[in-house]
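Bug: token stream looks shifted between consecutive jobs. Job 1:
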Amino acid sequence: MLNAEVMAAVLEFRRKRDWEQFHKPKELAAAIAVEASELLEVFQWKTHEEVARFLESPSRERVTDEIADVVILLSYLCHDLGLDVNEAVRSKLNKNEAKYPVEKSYGNARKYDE
């Protein structure tokens, strides 16, 4: 997800503040949920047209910041768990291929078991 240089900077930022002690898996998962909720809040109650205008304005930076918060926390969690996020995504894509075959899923938003 993050390249090695950015990941090193993220880890260094945390280390300099001695925050590793607070970043247990449960706390990181909770923080990810909070930051994802803050991202969702940006779009809450807006129409698709209002979202499009918002994303073309200087306010877009708020979306960028919230996405960065989610990615930073998720990167900490993956690092701390020794999880290769690229391998996890490949594995999940393989599972989703079986759940959502193209012939049953193409143009269809229903869940695989519906």
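Job 2, same session, no restart:
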Amino acid sequence: MTSHHRNNPQLLKEYKIICRWHVQRLQRMMDKMARIDEGGSSLLDNSLMLFGAGMSQGNTHSGVNIPILLAGKAGGDMKTGRHIQTAVNTQHSNFLLSVLQKMGVEKERFGKSTGSVNLD
């Protein structure tokens, strides 16, 4: 989620309220998915959800250090509870390509990707 808040304190306050609402809805959905049994594992365990933005700073349209949350275990292919730090200046599309590949999509490129990111 990004915003053109212009570093205005009132707009930042309102932006935080909106962000909190979105994250609360995400948590609610993940909780519901975790309770749905799919034969010994949950719907959340069998899914991979991506939550984030296309840029890290809306005012400058910065693509550096974009915060992204991945939730779910992708049917056992993803380890949870980790922080994955990519190299400086890694293309956002490299990360998105890696997510596609993790989900079984056989692609060599995505957007402006120059490779993939290790999600293991």
